[in-house]
Amino acid sequence: MGSTGDARRSAAVRRRDTLQRLRAERDMWVATAHPEHGPHQVPLWFLWDGHAVWVCTGAASATVRNLRADPRVRLALADTFDVVMLQGDAECHPDREVPDEAADAFAAKFGWDPRAEEGSFVYVRVLPETVRAWRGEPELRGRLIMRDGVWRDAGDRP
């Protein structure tokens, strides 16, 4: 694991940096598990709506099957040095029942609207309960920046 020397961001700065990445990045690892078939992990495009993560995948995908059996999910941005991991419970919305605001924003970000496809898709909404963020060893301590859906620096706005 790399190191940033003695540099260590405050919780408020980590939250700011995390939110900036959630707004800007396109891809996220989505990890689910099925009680009989075990873990499954896949990269998917994602949308951050300011409160929750939205991904979209085929209705018959292992991701959707797993989430219907067990809604717990872990999400991670791709960078292994500037780590951002989110955990929460997923809500599955068939493409014909997804809120227009979320689906329209997803389509605007990616130039692709699953609602217009012939196949069936499911939008998955994850409201984070836990967020961890760290850059290198100096930030391992204090990496938990959201617990029980509340930012740990809530009184210290960046």
Automatic annotation (TrEMBL):
SUPFAM superfamilies, per the entry: FMN-binding split barrel
Taxonomic superkingdom: Bacteria
Pfam families the record matches: PNPOx_N
InterPro entries given in the database record: F420H2_bilvrd_red/Heme_oxyg (IPR052019), Pyridox_Oxase_N (IPR011576), Split_barrel_FMN-bd (IPR012349)
GO molecular function, one term: oxidoreductase activity, acting on the CH-CH group of donors
Domain Pyridoxamine 5'-phosphate oxidase N-terminal: 21-134
Gene3D superfamilies: Electron Transport, Fmn-binding Protein, Chain A
The entry's keywords: Oxidoreductase
Gene Ontology CC entries for this record: cytosol
Descriptive protein name: Pyridoxamine 5'-phosphate oxidase N-terminal domain-containing protein
Native organism: Actinacidiphila reveromycinica
Lineage start: Bacteria, Bacillati, Actinomycetota, Actinomycetes, Kitasatosporales
